[in-house]
Amino acid sequence: MNAVAAQITPLTAAPPASRQRWIERFAGLGFAAPAFILLVLTNLAPLAALGFLSFTNYELGALDFAFVGLKNFSTALQDPVIRRSVTNTLLYVAIVVPGGVLISLLVAILIHQRKRTRSLYEVIYFLPVTSTLIAMATMWQFLLHPTLGLINQTLKGLGFAETAFLSEPRLVIPTLAAIGIWQLIGFNMVLFLAGLSAIPRDLYEAVDIDGASHPIDRFLKVTWPMLGPTTMFVTVTTFITAFKIFDTVAVMTRGGPGGASEVLLYAIYLEGFQYFHMSYAATLTLVFLAFTLVFSVLQTFILDRRVHY
Question: Which among 33, 162, 282, 293 could bridge 50 via Cys, Cβ 3.0 to 4.6 Å?
Fold first, then answer.
């Protein structure tokens, strides 16, 4: 009997190494569980709710709803308001992304060369990032006022006609884009300054020995290639930020004049919280997320091939 028990015991008792692996595995799951639960509650669950609502005709406050299949998606494809909103959003992004990246890079290069006043300029350019929405909107509305604004007064002094930047359909999106670039310069500048500080000085000495002592040659042969990873990150984050344009439109123009500044997120807000079409707003939100995901992935793949790590 004792011999049989001695043979069974090694089979039933887990080896110490195996038991340790199981303990470590469950401990790892325990540490990861709070973050996973938070991810589910804040991201996956709302996304699933959006997907569910997009196939219904639910309206805010209604007691019942019905499934309508892909009707909301077909309506969105044929809705002229949504087409106009997507066009306005893409135009805004097309102006903000190159402007926000290139101007921030230029500012970072100019500030990086300074010694005594670098901290002062960093604070000045970073102030728009910390400004509140209401203060920013009030300031820009005053500056852009057709008759009393400082910008129009300056243009008038230079001999140009007064311009209603926020009331002219052709100018409202470029004007909002200029404000968006102004907001982004400080944050992107900090990222580029970090990338510039990480470039080894030996590379500049090497190109000087090769005869490339001109600042443009140094930039093209050393600075620009070495800033590849930073530029890719700044470009993708700037695109996502620009595509999420909502606050300046909601506060300064409210989609006007005549819908000329109505962007996709503002259209979603109107459908969901002004017209109470929650199912249609959920559909538009999924379209918005799809746009953001596709464009971000395409940018990452395209830029990653040109980046030197």
Answer: 282
